[in-house]
Amino acid sequence: MDIKKIREDTPCGNIYMNHASTSVPPLPVTEAAQEYYRMIMKYGATSRQAEEMTACICGRAVQNMAEFLHADAEEIMFVPNGTVGIDMAARGLRFKKGQNILLDSMSFVSNAAPWIEAAGLYGLEIRYIPAVLPGYLDLEELEHLIDENTALISVTHAANSLGVLQEVEKIGELAQKYGIPYLVDAAGTMGAVSLDVKKIGCDFLTASGRKYLRGPSGTGILYVKKEMTEKLKGYVPAWNSGNWDYQRNEFTFHGDIRKLEFGEKNFPGIFGLSKAVEYIGEIGGMQDVEARIRKLTCYLFEKLKVIKGVRIIGPEDASCRCGTLGFVMAGKMCGEIAAYLNQNGVGMMGHHFFCPGVTELFGIEGTARLSVHYWNTEEEIDLVTELLENMQGESYGET
């Protein structure tokens, strides 16, 4: 992996370690998004040339994403963000009163709110899958929660405040064993770890494009297993989601994944997202990306754990994370740590990250979060941890 060339593609002026929120797209991605606007300026948005080029690039984008996830092209839908993808699944499933949903207790709010709303609409029960220290879902208890009325299992691949990878393939085996639809929120892992929907065994997978994949903001994907697509209700009656019979005054949704379309697409975003997938291949592929992120995560872990007063939240084994580390520091609020680092040119965050199950499990108010990517360097990590040492030294009156 040519880090020098990659850094040239990423002219970021700060030390940036907030990829779990929004990463920095490389220049080829921004150029791909701009390509759409250059095209419509040249030909006009509804010209034959522009429509043919748009259809070609969007078709390639679907194929790129399908190959990236080991899915089929007819199982991929581009969405504005991962939240919308989850909402599509929640509104599409045909629930019955008295059924229950098993929900990851460490989820971000976006993987909770759509199911809570569905529970209110259809008379469902939400059952939270408990987590145990040092930050894993309790799979034995998950199996105990399953009964004949379980309609869905929904989990987050890695909580955004921890970065701890959950055992999604084992959960997939349980879902298949009992014939239960299964959704994985991969917002924090797509682009950081290899994803294979067939190995995971999920019926749905959602993710945002702007995080570790380094795509444009306002982009995301929803994978729906073909057999599941046929069972879903349509999402929004629109010109591209079904057929309108004017004479009979009827609208019928398509039978395939097009039933989830909802009008105009974010073509510049799709152009850029497709290039983000291609860019990973150009710099070495997901295996190299994953190995580089794991190496930097372990390096950051070792540097953080020796700082006086720092407590890293989650497992001691840094290799089980997707690039994200959450920590607390004695005598400092997480927002105070973030403000100090931000003022010193480090992009990161300190927050509860809308994951109340995480803060409750560890007995904390929130975490200071550093999330590294393949284009970060050991030298940047050294500078960040030196800043933290200086900050803590000031607290202890050291000079």
Automatic annotation (TrEMBL):
InterPro entries: Aminotrans_V_dom, Aminotrans_V_PyrdxlP_BS, PyrdxlP-dep_Trfase, PyrdxlP-dep_Trfase_major, PyrdxlP-dep_Trfase_small. Transmembrane segments: none annotated. It holds the Pfam family Aminotran_5. One of its GO terms (molecular function) is cysteine desulfurase activity. Keywords: Lyase, Pyridoxal phosphate. It comes from the Bacteria. Residues 15-383 form the Aminotransferase class V domain. It catalyses: (sulfur carrier)-H + L-cysteine = (sulfur carrier)-SH + L-alanine. Its cofactor is pyridoxal 5'-phosphate. Belongs to the class-V pyridoxal-phosphate-dependent aminotransferase family. Csd subfamily. This is Cysteine desulfurase/selenocysteine lyase. It comes from Faecalicatena orotica.
